[in-house]
Amino acid sequence: MIEVNDIHKSFDDAHILKGITTSFQKGKTNLIIGQSGSGKTVFLKCLLGLFTPEEGTISYDGKIYNDLTDAEKRDLRQEMGMVFQGSALFDSMSVEGNVKFPLEMFTKQSKSEMQDRADFVLKRVNLVDAHHKFPSEISGGMQKRVAIARAIVMNPKYLFCDEPNSGLDPKTAIVIDNLIKEITEEYDITTIINTHDMNSVMEIGEKILFLKDGLKAWEGTNKEIFKTDNETVTDFVYSSDLFKKVRQMYIEERN
Ligand SMILES: Nc1ncnc2c1ncn2[C@@H]1O[C@H](COP(=O)(O)OP(=O)(O)OP(=O)(O)O)[C@@H](O)[C@H]1O
């Protein structure tokens, strides 16, 4: 579980995060949504320990980040997996090489242990025949699977995903969303996903945090987001006619 208490982050005179308090449960897919520039990436980077908030605290299963020693912070970072926007695979390394990379960097595992772990996570993301291919030889959806395999290879407690569906067709995006949700439940990970994809919000948003101008404008579940009358949320989430109709049908079905 990650608990965020009143964090503020500024760059020079620009006050970007203006006091955000929230929490993210383990075993759940937590989504962060909001317009471009609302502070989602800055918030995610604070959770990753890449930015230090000037005020407020972030705690990871009860451990307050600022109270940790440098060695404890390093240990905590190793409990974090990250799926970057655009996958961010190493082009010069094979699929298997990409997945083994964190093990080679951060563990003292033997070659056969690394091989077993790489085989296991690649199988878990349903990639069994691509070990020796290079990123340029596989599809965007397969690259995302490799990125997910690499993010979970160290058995993380916390998984952060920045726009995991960007550049994917809608069908592949759903497969990737479901894969992230399954893995989150299976390994009891606290997963936080930064997204613009309203389909993800509806499908896997067990908890949704809506940021606006660096503030928490709303939070709730995907079921609650259908029912909310909060105009800031409805203006943003239901800006397309299609989603407006879906919401109307949902409300009528429930009445
Ligand atoms: N390192 C930085 N230095 C200065 N300003 C920054 C830095 N990183 C982000 N910002 C500013 O913080 C604000 C929020 O940016 P952020 O990237 O968090 O938005 P976002 O909600 O993730 O947008 P998008 O959905 O487009 O990715 C922007 O005004 C941005 O210019």
From TrEMBL:
SUPFAM superfamilies: P-loop containing nucleoside triphosphate hydrolases. Pfam families: ABC_tran (PF00005). One of its GO terms (molecular function) is ATP binding. PROSITE patterns: ABC_TRANSPORTER_1, ABC_TRANSPORTER_2. Keywords: ATP-binding, Nucleotide-binding, Transport. Residues 2-238 form the ABC transporter domain. PANTHER family: INTERMEMBRANE PHOSPHOLIPID TRANSPORT SYSTEM ATP-BINDING PROTEIN MLAF, PROTEIN TRIGALACTOSYLDIACYLGLYCEROL 3, CHLOROPLASTIC. This is ATP-binding cassette domain-containing protein. It comes from Zobellia barbeyronii. The lineage of its organism: Bacteria, Pseudomonadati, Bacteroidota, Flavobacteriia, Flavobacteriales.
